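Retro notes (design track)

What went well: tokenization of the new backbones is finally stable.
What didn't: we kept losing track of which sequence belonged to which structure.
Fix going forward: every design gets posted as structure first, then sequence, in one message. First example under the new rule, 310 residues:
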């Protein structure tokens, strides 16, 4: 008898569509178990708003994080949902973590800035390496970024030879070991327009990116570039390469979300657990509007997390 695996889901911001997605999931036929961590009362209320009379699915459980917890507000609720779902992975109760959207501003205080799930989960797990944000479209093409959530000014400062070498080595290793691609082919973009065009628009390419690529080629890592970022995600490149590596967040996601907004999945590499998420925000304006909510990205995030656990 095959053991059915369990995925942990943090339900996200109770004011956003994360709770809608969780409610809609109860109507799906799943090949795995799902444990949802969040506010049970809010989830039942959201289901009623969506016209779902009965939240019953033998493969889904709701873990109410408010039980036995002194949670004072929604911020604490959301953070406890993430912590509890992550803890279930650490304790091997779940084989992967899938996170639903949160509002970074709502979770930030004057003393504690919440920059994103990626950084927060890495801190919870005491990850040895800085995690790499990657995004999967069509369950195949991988887009990765040199930086996580930070200002553009700081992102530019992170385009540095040794940093690039370390991040690209980690990316290459994760693609081989986690995604089971034996000989990954990675295309690297430039930072500046037209990849600098021989230092006409900046020298980061010649000073940092090209030396990093050349060093890694000596280690038999298949890298090409730097190429202009604005044309990196063309179909020919998506066929030829396993991963396209961009220098910062928006440089990658403007193109990626245009192509894969409803279906794309965020996969964090470099963590000691498998973590995926949907590739969209809280979309508070869509709450309760069943006909306008797409569950595709959520289902893809679950499917990819389950497959990566094999």
């Amino acid at each position: 008898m095959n053991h059915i695996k369990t995925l942990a889901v943090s339900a996200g911001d109770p004011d956003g569509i994360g709770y809608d997605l969780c409610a809609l999931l109860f109507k799906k036929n799943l090949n795995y178990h799902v444990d949802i961590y969040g506010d049970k009362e809010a989830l039942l209320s959201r289901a009623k708003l969506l016209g779902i009379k009965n939240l019953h699915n033998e493969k889904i459980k709701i873990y109410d994080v408010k039980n036995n917890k002194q949670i004072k507000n929604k911020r604490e609720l959301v953070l406890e949902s993430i912590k509890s779902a992550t803890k279930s992975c650490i304790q091997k109760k779940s084989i992967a973590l899938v996170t639903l959207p949160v509002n970074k501003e709502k979770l930030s205080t004057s003393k504690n800035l919440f920059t994103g799930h990626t950084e927060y989960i890495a801190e919870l797990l005491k990850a040895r390496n800085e995690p790499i944000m990657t995004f999967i479209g069509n369950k195949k093409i991988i887009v990765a970024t040199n930086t996580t959530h930070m200002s553009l000014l700081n992102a530019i400062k992170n385009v540095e030879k040794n940093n690039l070498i370390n991040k690209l080595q980690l990316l290459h290793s994760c693609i081989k070991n986690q995604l089971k691609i034996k000989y990954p082919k990675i295309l690297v973009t430039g930072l500046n327009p037209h990849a600098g065009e021989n230092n006409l628009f900046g020298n980061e390419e010649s000073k940092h990116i090209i030396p990093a690529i050349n060093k890694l080629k000596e280690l038999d890592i298949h890298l090409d570039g730097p190429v202009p970022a604005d044309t990196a995600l063309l179909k020919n490149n998506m066929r030829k390469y396993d991963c396209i590596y961009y220098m910062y967040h928006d440089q990658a996601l403007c193109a990626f979300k245009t192509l894969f907004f409803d279906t794309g999945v965020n996969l964090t590499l470099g963590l000691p657990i498998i973590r995926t998420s949907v590739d969209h925000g809280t979309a508070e304006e869509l709450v309760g509007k069943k006909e306008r909510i797409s569950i595709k990205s959520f289902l893809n995030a679950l499917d990819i997390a389950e497959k990566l656990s094999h």
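Added context from the reviewer: The mean pLDDT is 94.
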